[in-house]
Design a protein that fits this description.
CATH superfamily of the largest domain: DNA primase, catalytic core, N-terminal domain
Number of strands: 16
Number of domains: 5
CATH class of the largest domain: Alpha Beta
CATH topology of the largest domain: DNA primase DNAg catalytic core, N-terminal domain
Length: 588
Amino acid sequence: MSSRYPAAWLDELRSRSDIVQIISGYVALNKKGRKYWGLCPFHGEKTPSFSVDGEHQLYYCFGCKAGGNVFHFYMEMEHCTFSEAVTQLAERAHMTLPELERDEDYERRRTQRERLLAANKEAARYYHETLFTPAGAASLAYLRRRGLSDGVIRKFGLGASPDEWSVLSDRLMEKGFTLDELTLAGLTVRKKSETGKDRYFDMFRSRAMFPIIDAYGNVLAFGGRTLEKREPKYLNTADTPVFNKRKGVFAANLLRQQRHLDRVILVEGYMDVVSLTQFGVEGVCATLGTALTAEQARLLKRFAPQVYLGYDGDSAGQHAILRGLEILEQENVPARVLDFPDGLDPDEFIRRDGAEGFRNLPAISPAAYRLRRLKEQFDLSAQDGRLAYARSASEIVSAVDPLERDVLLSQLSLETGFSRETLTEQMKLSVRKDAVRTSETVARPRTSVRTVTGEAVSDDIKAQELLLSLFASGKIPKDMIEEKDFDDDELKSLYRELAAGASPASLPDLAPDDASRSRYTRLLLMPASGSTDEMISMANDCLVRIRRTKLENRYEELSQEISSAAGERLSALLQEAREISDKLKKLK
């Protein structure tokens, strides 16, 4: 991102664009200790979780996980590109823009991205214009049958791909785009003929078109709905250099415009989003032809404090809800499930019952929903069925807070005929079993896992993360830590940059995506501990844990090798094992 500008000049601009002063223009900040706190401008909240580190020139929200330096904050608030943010901040700081450095690889990637986005934008414009011509009559008739107004059609930029083989490809090549670029963007399919010549045709033909637009207004890809009885019903752009279906959602651009949402409603289909929006429902989006992913959950957390799952009422939709709840819980996103009656999907329901009916839909808790699905698996008219249901249900009920537990126990007692006291005893048994399973899991050898903000991580990775945070503070001796103390590639990279003299505020610019930038920022914030002695002591504790774990893992490997070794190899392994044993004794 920043490679177009000299690094030293960018460092000076960051230091002269005081992040506390800049953010104070948008957020009311109060100083507590070393940091400033306020209500996050990126998601609705009542208790401040948005932190600004004036010493390291970074911001981070412990609620939605948004983070970065002054450039990223300005980009988010002003909806501008990195170059625009740099230019505007430089004007505020009365700094002259430098001569841009040539970085051929960066320029190639930037140019490719800009070209692909430009091709997608031209395609979206063509599809939208075509919708209101004879070539798009079938698509327009389909959208009108679904009850869509011209206003909502324009709001989403809906369009039509004509029933012709290469009309879009030919049009875009006339505008200067190459066949390679159109193929790379997923707009064109290219094949070799038997004679070795290139044959090409449009990816989307005879379909109603839904452009997929990111939060910054870039057209990334398309979804196309067939107008005939053929499969696939929906055809989506495959992953490209500008589009990854796991990382975005349909209507992200509208979510960004709707500030301070109290919840995001996640649905399955494009038409569900469009239809609900037409009826005045805000905060609606859809996954992009995949089940909910962790990346999407983290993205949604930036727009609202909780997510309502509004999936279809059929069996596939109900199964997807269970998986969606698991993903949201893993990412610490509070969730609810919208209860659509009669097996309807959101579009069908709101067209039948209207906006008022939608507002009155029950939004049930994950535990209540899981109990409902669980109940379907048992015959409650039989004693064995009630017993099995009560045992399984007790595990679900035991995991919720006391108030909801009280409600669910009453419901469970009515359904099974067992008293609340008996069910409470069964629930205690479930808790003990879960504790045993947890202890068995903890007893197993710990393994290093890659972590991003919000994910569960091993104790060793936590120790490495804390060690990096302490190193970034600049208050522990540089020669105390070595690169080999880090297993995680991101942590190694951050350590190398810091050891080479990079400022913490510059490192979020190196993050490959939002998730990594969030993690970088969290790790680079100034640790809460005050004194240098305390920080050195904490760093030493981390190093002891990290190095002991490495030695224990190597000792385990040696034990397995020794069992089958012989001769000189056995002697060497035994010698190494003794050396590791001595080192472990010293560490303990």
